[in-house]
Design a protein that fits this description.
566 residues; alpha+beta; 9-stranded antiparallel sheet; 6-stranded antiparallel sheet; 11 helices
């Protein structure tokens, strides 16, 4: 007697066998479908089984920040962003109390470990930490300065004094001048400790410790455009290839950020290296492409027919047609290139399984072809097929904005405004200027209650962290940063200067007129951390620019009558 389970298993087996056979009951229908889909139009050709490439590559060896003098570049040593954006942490106008204390503490620990306590006491007295907590004057900075004052020397002041002597090989000359001429311990041991400490400070971070006074911003920063500009170059094929980036403001760069500048020469004098590579090409694979096996399930995450239905345009149809009909005709061959180099393929030879050998040229070498993938802007002629492999920054970690400035046009007041929303404190922390301004108004106190009287106001008071932007008289293409007026206790009028670095206090700042828009432009300074291609940690401060949402009204009014309580 046969059980019901045996009947079910038997039915499943027969159904599976019928499906696995995949019999074609109408061969003429199959041929018709092949004719309709264009399969019968294909030419007899072999599959590539070998690829031989001759590549010419040269390392980037020179770079130029902004309009400064070109200098040498060790490509791959650190991310390009760290090289271009890094600015001084500590300047004469914006001292960094935490950096001064930590560098001084590092020197103090080295001297104590070397058995030189007398030199430590001398430096504490000769280079004391400043008691001023900076312009921001926040409570956290004041507490930090009060804690560290008298306990460690000011490492930044000492570094600025000794670093030029070390660069000239004259570090021992410092012991003939005050205060080091008062060292009563082994001067040779002290000199060795100072030399090691100076070397450590110089490699602390890009731009972190510098002898450059004044404003301390990166040389590549273009204040007129609120973005970075720089160029790199290498010598390829007997001629110099200069690649420029004129509008770096988004925080990251890649190969498409560069364009060739044929008019600029940075002095690259290296020699390109030619190498030959042989590969076994492999088929290109991408999500959603048709599977080569009959019973293999397709990837359900990508539905190309659904894409074609959703976007009924030529680009979508070309994409779907490429994926479904010609996706299996593409092959890839990996090409190892050094990081921080420019290169071009001098020769590409493909061998098929029929023994055919085909020389493949660049699309620019084919008459009438103008479309190119992964090509740089501005390249032509002998350098039309140049490829750039920049130094990647990888995963970049960013802090909260330690400084944020918003620049916008005020159509009602017929001028522009630069608002310092956030500034950096003396210990590197963000300080909200609007909050500080509100506290200062609360501390001033309200007038006592009494009778009300009317008073005439020539102009209302603008918040102290708002700076006006006015059209330049000599050139309408630029706007100048002005100063908010305030009356001093003596009755004189003075202009309030910005606290941060972006608006360049104490200097004449010019901004191009097209950068001042109604929707606002936001410029931020952030601490950024990444690792170089060699795995070394890199920490720097960089700036970025992005669109804002506009500014609230500053409340500026002229010629008004207000009611006061006296």
């Amino acid at each position: 007697m046969t059980s019901p389970l045996q009947f079910v298993i038997g039915d499943l087996a027969s159904d599976t066998a019928e499906g696995e056979a995949a019999r074609v009951l109408d061969p003429l229908w199959m041929l018709a479908r092949q004719w309709q889909t264009g399969e019968l139009d294909g030419k007899d050709s072999g599959s590539p089984v070998g690829v031989r490439m001759a590549v010419e590559a040269a390392m980037l060896e020179r770079w130029q920040p902004g309009a400064a003098t070109a200098r040498g570049l060790r490509a791959g040593a650190q991310p390009v962003e760290a090289l271009v954006e890094a600015e001084c942490w500590d300047t004469s106008t914006h001292p960094h109390a935490r950096l001064a204390a930590e560098t001084g503490l590092g020197l103090q620990q080295r001297l104590v470990a070397a058995g030189l306590p007398g030199t430590v006491a001398l430096l504490r007295v000769s280079y004391p930490l400043p008691l001023d907590a900076g312009t921001a004057g926040d409570a956290a900075s004041a507490r930090y300065v009060a804690l560290m004052a008298g306990r460690v020397p000011d490492g930044m002041r000492l570094y600025r004094y000794l670093q030029p002597l070390q660069a000239q090989g004259r570090l021992v000359a410092a012991f003939g001048e005050a205060p080091l001429n008062q060292v009563h311990e082994d001067t040779g041991a002290v000199a060795r400790v100072l030399d090691a400490w100076l070397t450590e400070c110089a490699t602390f971070s890009p731009g972190g410790v510098s002898t450059a006074a004044a404003h301390g911003e990166a040389e590549a920063w273009q204040a007129e455009r609120l973005e970075y500009g720089f160029a790199v170059s290498a010598r390829l094929g007997g001629d110099e290839v200069t690649l420029a980036v004129d509008d770096h403001a988004e925080g990251v760069t890649d190969w498409y950020s560069y364009s060739r500048d044929a008019s600029r020469r940075l002095g690259a004098a290296g020699t390109a290296v030619q190498r030959v590579f042989a590969f076994l090409p492999s088929p290109v694979r991408f999500a959603g492409m048709p599977r080569p096996r009959f019973w293999e399930l397709e990837d359900g995450r990508v539905s190309l027919p659904r894409l074609e239905q959703a976007r009924d345009d030529a680009a979508s149809r070309l994409l779907v047609d490429f994926a479904l009909r010609y996706g299996n005709d593409w092959f890839s061959a990996p090409l190892p290139l050094p990081i921080g180099s420019v290169s071009r393929i001098r020769n590409l030879m493909v061998t098929t399984n029929f023994g055919e050998r085909w020389a493949i040229g660049a699309t620019v070498a084919v008459a009438g072809e103008t479309w190119r993938m992964y090509a740089l802007s501005g390249v032509s002629g002998a350098f039309a097929d140049v490829f750039l492999a920049p130094t990647p920054a990888g995963q970049v970690l960013e802090s909260a904005a330690v400084e944020q400035v918003q620049l916008a046009r005020d159509e009602v007041a017929n001028l522009g405004w630069a608002v310092e929303a956030v500034v950096e404190s003396a210990i590197g922390l963000p300080v909200d200027r609007a909050e500080q301004y509100a506290r200062s108004l609360a501390a001033a106190g309200a007038a006592p209650a009494g009778a009300a009287q009317r008073s005439y106001r020539l102009g209302s008071v603008v918040p102290s962290f708002w700076s006006p932007l006015l059209p330049a008289r000599d050139d309408a293409a630029f706007w100048l940063r002005g100063a908010t007026p305030r009356m001093t206790a003596s009755g004189s009028i003075e202009g309030l200067q910005p606290w941060g670095r972006v608006l360049q206090p104490g200097q004449a700042m010019r901004v191009r007129e097209e950068e001042i828009r109604a929707e606002a432009i936001v410029v931020e300074r952030r601490y950024r951390f990444a690792r170089s291609a060699e795995g070394q940690p890199v920490l720097w401060i960089g700036r970025c620019k992005h669109a804002g949402r506009g500014l609230a009204s500053c409340g500026l009014r002229f010629d008004t009558v207000e009611t006061d309580t006296v």
